[in-house]
From TrEMBL:
Transmembrane parts of this sequence: 29-49
Protein name stated in the entry: Trichome birefringence-like N-terminal domain-containing protein
Localization per record: Golgi apparatus membrane
Domain Trichome birefringence-like C-terminal: 143-431
GO cellular component: Golgi membrane
GO molecular function: xylan O-acetyltransferase activity
Length: 438
């Protein structure tokens, strides 16, 4: 009986939360067990009586895209929302701190249906809520809160692709949850593969897509039983490279998979490996493969005449170092409940190696593109220093029910939704505003 009541209560909460104003939605976070069933029933019935109105300007669902997502004519333009901007001279990626935020979070697992299960920490019983109550403040200035209407106006009539591993998908899902305050997208994917999704915001003629590519270049497992990868460092992965010219903006990211055992190829020949223990094959540092793969990927996007003429946003790695008490496969976990102060963490080890390689390859690509007269614009989105301070924001064991028989490890790589990753989209909005300095 108690279980049935709990399920009914959760359903009523969901009905109410889908229709209540944002300020009232937060009551579910502040006191999730306080509301009685009769009170919740009244709320649900009250708001069901006034059905959710369609988003202004929204057209019919598009069953497909024609394969060209660039700069289409905006549908039913409305007055542009005035976005709050950082002052000129403010570096939103400068060293800073996470400060308390009583207005957070922007959404909940009940108001956003787009959260992947393994990042749905609230659904799966994370007991604390303090990790939600922080915002990133760069040194010397404030980062404005995310404005969904302003973001959609900034990207009206354009397209955005997230290219990378599952953290790129984590990033995109955060964005869609933030935009859900204004509009929901239509899934117009041309494949059933969940790693490649294309979502369409008809009301703003805006398309957003995810291309899963953990190495950016061609990588595969000849024998999955050996857990060894073959990575062709000079061959960009056709899964994203073949169609990327159709997009206006690309957020490029990848790092964590380069820690896996692998054999490296260039020009079809073995040039080294990481932990392959093959006779005569030199063991190369992990930063070698990451650096080479990033160089190949960026050249696809910046080569003159290569087809892509939009904006490339290079997002630096999400920290690999938040496991405590053991490695990811040796019982390591991340159970902290609040951010670290800047004095409590510094970039080191693999994080420092990968971050240095990414920044240097960004600088190299920028210089090469400028010298060759390339039309692509490159921006660096250096999220690593801020995220290094958030070991409290990962799912840990709260990506599935405790009783489920799953083979997942404690997740200290991805980010809870809602959670600290939402700050990436506060940063992205500032970068996409028309007068953002190059």
């Amino acid at each position: 009986m108690q279980a049935k009541v709990g399920r009914l209560r959760q359903r009523l909460l969901g009905i109410a939360a889908d229709h209540l104003p944002p300020a009232v939605q937060k009551l579910q976070l502040l006191a999730p067990a306080a509301a009685s069933l009769p009170a919740l029933a009244v709320l649900a019935l009250l708001f069901l009586a006034t059905a959710r109105r369609p988003v202004p300007g929204a057209g019919p669902a598009s069953p497909f895209l024609d394969g060209a997502y660039r700069s289409g004519a905006a549908a039913s333009p409305s007055p542009a929302a005035a976005a709050a901007r950082v002052p000129r001279g403010c570096d939103i990626f400068a060293p800073g701190e996470w400060v308390p935020d009583g207005d957070a979070p922007y959404y909940t697992n009940l108001t956003c249906p787009l959260i992947q299960e393994h990042q749905n920490c609230m659904k799966y019983g994370r007991p604390d809520r303090g990790f939600l109550r922080w915002r990133w403040r760069p040194a010397g200035c404030d980062l404005p809160r995310f404005d969904a209407a302003a973001f959609l106006d900034a990207v009206r009539g354009s397209s955005l692709a997230f290219v990378g591993d599952s953290l790129a998908r984590n990033h995109m899902q955060s964005l869609m949850c933030l935009l859900a305050k204004v509009a929901y997208p239509t899934d117009v994917s041309e494949t059933t593969n969940p790693e490649f999704r294309t979502m369409r915001y008809e009301s703003h003629n805006f398309t957003v897509a995810i291309f899963w590519t953990p190495f950016l270049v061609r990588g595969y497992q000849p024998d999955p039983r050996r857990h060894m990868w073959d990575i062709h460092l000079d061959e960009p992965d056709a899964a994203w490279a073949a169609g990327i010219a159709a997009f206006d903006r690309v957020v490029l990211s990848a790092a964590n998979w380069f820690a896996r055992p692998a054999v490296f190829y260039e020009a079809g020949r073995v040039v080294g490996c990481h932990y392959c223990q093959l006779p005569g094959v030199p063991d190369l540092p992990m930063r070698h493969s990451l650096r080479a793969a990033w160089r190949s990927a960026l050249r696809v996007l910046t080569a003159p005449g290569g087809g892509f003429t939009g904006t490339v946003v290079v997002r630096t790695l999400s920290p690999t170092s938040h496991f405590e008490g053991g490695a990811w496969d040796r019982g390591g976990d991340c159970r902290r409940t609040r951010p670290l102060a800047a004095s409590e963490a510094r970039m080191a080890g693999l994080d420092l190696d990968f971050h240095t390689a990414q920044v240097e390859e960004f600088e190299r690509a920028s210089a090469e593109a400028a010298a060759a007269g390339g039309r692509a614009r490159l921006l660096l989105m250096d999220t690593t220093p801020a995220m290094l301070l958030r070991p409290d924001g990962h799912p840990s064991r709260y990506g599935h029910w405790a009783h489920e028989n799953v083979t997942l490890y404690n997740d200290c790589v991805h980010w809870c939704l809602p959670g600290p990753i939402d700050a990436w989209n506060e940063m992205l909005l500032q970068m996409l505003l028309p007068d953002h300095p190059a």
